[in-house]
Amino acid sequence: MAYLEDARPTPFKRYCKGLSLQADAELLATYRRLHAPGAAWPEITQGMREVGILDMEIYLTGSQAFMIMDTVPDFDHDQAMQALATKPRQAEWEALMASYQQTSPDATAAEKWQLLERIYKLGT
Predict the structure, then answer these.
(1) Which residues in 23-45 are b (16+ Cβ under 10 Å) and which e?
(2) What CA–CA distances, in Å, run from 65 to 7, 9, 21, 94, 120?
(3) What is the mean pLDDT of residues 21-33?
(4) Domain architecture of the chain: domains with CATH
(5) Quick check: 22 and 101 in contact, CB under 8 A?
(6) How many CB atoms neighbour CB 86 within 10 A?
């Protein structure tokens, strides 16, 4: 599938992360529904914006999730993830998501979503 994107008028940082989900068709279908447009709780989206996340996309292949997270240029990943964990309903959302993920229920979002190393970029 291809996705048409708008060009960003200002610089930003991009983070890519990976996560393993439970390999269960019913759980995967529910996980997809919980991430459908407009389905994420408003407090979760608001909290992400407050810590400097400009945009986020999650892709699935089988039971592997891949996240692309675009942030403000001066984004400090560790500090932002700590701040995000204190936002309203974030702990509740993380606990719910843990039931679909191959992780422990008390793991933080930063512990679940592993930063990926970029090994190639098509030059300009």
Answers:
(1) eeeeebeebeeeeeeeeeeeebe
(2) 24, 28, 7, 15, 20
(3) 97
(4) 13-115 (3.30.70.100)
(5) yes
(6) 10
Contact, 83 vs 51, CB < 8 A? yes
Tallying the residues shown for the chain, one arrives at: 124
Q: Where are the alpha helices (DSSP H) in the chain?
A: 25-34, 42-50, 77-85, 90-98, 109-112
Q: How many CB atoms lie within 10 A of CB 102?
A: 13
**Confidence tier at 71 by pLDDT (50, 70, 90):** very high
The residue written with tokens 């699935």 in the block is 60
The pLDDT tens digits for 38-62 are 999 999 999 999 999 999 999 999 9
